[in-house]
Design goal:
Helix 1 crosses helix 2 and helix 2 packs parallel to helix 3 (69-82). It contains eleven helices and twelve strands. The relative contact order is 0.12. The protein is an alpha/beta fold. The protein has helices at residues 13-26, 41-51, 69-82, 96-99, 110-125, 162-170, 182-200, 219-229, 237-246, 260-272, 286-309, and strands at residues 2-6, 30-33, 56-59, 62-63, 87-92, 130-133, 138-141, 154-157, 174-178, 206-215, 256-258, 277-282. Strands 1, 2, 3, 4, 5, 8, 9, 10, 11 and 12 form a ten-stranded parallel beta sheet that branches. The protein has a domain at 1-158: Luciferase-like domain (TIM Barrel, Alpha-Beta Barrel).
Length: 310
C-alpha cells in the first residue's frame, strides 16, 4: 500500500508550495488535495508540480457540476503537461446541499448525470475525438483538447454506492474514498468494484482511501476533536451511509486514532483490505500532526523494506 498525505490548498499559492516543499523534504512523494471553496486546486497543483518534480499529485476530488467536461479535460491535460505526467485526476459529484443550494444546479439523477459526463471526459483526457450527446451533458471535440501529445492523467472517481463503483471500475481507473472504514472496504467497496472490473475485462481498480489520522496518547480527546472538526460529513447522505455500513456512530469511528503502534496496525489492516494507497489527513495539534506524519513515514519505510526483502 502506497502512502500519501493531504496537502492543504486554502491560502495563497505560495503557502501551498511551501507546504508541499516541507512534505517533500520529510520524504513524502504523493500528495492529494481537495477542491472545496478555496483556490483552484488544479492551478495550484500545476505550480507545485512544476517547482517540485519529485511529487506525484492528485485531486480528491474536483466536483464536476460547475465544469463542462471539455474545460476540465483541457485543464487537467494542461496540468499533466506542466508537471511531467504525474497527475491523478479525482472527480466526484459533490452533494445536493452544495450543488443546488450554492451553485443553483440540479442534482437530479446524479449517477446518470455522471455517466454522461464521463462519456465525454474520459476520452477527452486521452486526447481522443469526442462526439458525446447525452440528455444533460453533450460535448464535441475533433481532436485533443489542451496540449497535444500528453499522456492521459489517471482518472479516479469518488464512488461509494454500487452504481458509482461500477463506473469507477469500467470508465475510470478506480475510486478515491473518504469517511469509509476498513470493514466497509472489505465487505462492500472491494467486492463491488472488483466484480465490475472483471465483467468488463479491465485491470483490478485502484482503491485510494483517505481518513483523518491522529497519533496521540489521549485517544478520547482526539476522538472528540475529530468529531468536531469533521461533523458536517456525518450529515451528508453519502458519507452517512458509509458510516452506517461500518457500524460507526461518527467520523471518529473510522479515523485512525491512537498510539504509534495502534496506527501502524490500522494501516496494515487497510492494506490487507485491498487499499492500494492511503492518503493521511493529519489533524490535531502541531505535535500530533508531526507525530502522524512520522508514523506515515515509518509505515512507508517498513513497506519498502518488506518489498526489498521479498
Amino acid at each position: 500500500m502506497r502512502i500519501g498525505v493531504s496537502l492543504e490548498i486554502d491560502g495563497t499559492v505560495e503557502d501551498a508550495l511551501e507546504g508541499a516543499r516541507q512534505l517533500r523534504d520529510r520524504g513524502f512523494r504523493s500528495l492529494w488535495s481537495s477542491q472545496i471553496f478555496g483556490p483552484d486546486t488544479l492551478t495550484a497543483l500545476a505550480i507545485v508540480g512544476r517547482e517540485l518534480p519529485e511529487l506525484d499529485l492528485g485531486t480528491a476530488v474536483v466536483p464536476v457540476q460547475p465544469r463542462h467536461p471539455s474545460m476540465l479535460a483541457a485543464q487537467a491535460r494542461t496540468v499533466q503537461d506542466a508537471i511531467g505526467g504525474r497527475l491523478t485526476l479525482g472527480v466526484g459529484l459533490s452533494h445536493q446541499v452544495i450543488v443546488e443550494g450554492l451553485w443553483g444546479i440540479s442534482f437530479d439523477r446524479p449517477v446518470s448525470y455522471l455517466h454522461e459526463y464521463l462519456a465525454a471526459l474520459a476520452p477527452m483526457l486521452r486526447g481522443e475525438a469526442v462526439n458525446a450527446r447525452g440528455e444533460r451533458v453533450s460535448a464535441m471535440a475533433t481532436g485533443p483538447v489542451g496540449p497535444k501529445d500528453v499522456v492521459a492523467p489517471r482518472l479516479v472517481l469518488a464512488a461509494l454506492g454500487p452504481k458509482m463503483l461500477a463506473l469507477a471500475a469500467t470508465v475510470a481507473d478506480g475510486t478515491v474514498l473518504w469517511m469509509t472504514g476498513r470493514r466497509t472496504i472489505v465487505e462492500h467497496i472491494r467486492p463491488t468494484i472488483d466484480a465490475a472490473a472483471e465483467v468488463a475485462g479491465r485491470p483490478r481498480p485502484s482503491v485510494i482511501c483517505s481518513l483523518p489520522v491522529v497519533v496521540t496518547d489521549d485517544a478520547e480527546a482526539a476522538r472528540a476533536m475529530v468529531n468536531k472538526t469533521f461533523a458536517v460529513y456525518a450529515t451528508l447522505p453519502s458519507y452517512r451511509a458509509m458510516l452506517e455500513r461500518e457500524g460507526a456512530q461518527d467520523p471518529a469511528g473510522v479515523a485512525l486514532i491512537g498510539s504509534r503502534g495502534a496506527v501502524l496496525d490500522q494501516l496494515g489492516e487497510l492494506a490487507d483490505a485491498g487499499v492500494t494507497e492511503f492518503s493521511a489527513v493529519a489533524v490535531g495539534s502541531a505535535d500530533q500532526r508531526d507525530a502522524t506524519l512520522g508514523v506515515m513515514l515509518d509505515y512507508l519505510h517498513q513497506s519498502e523494506g518488506s518489498a526489498s526483502a521479498g
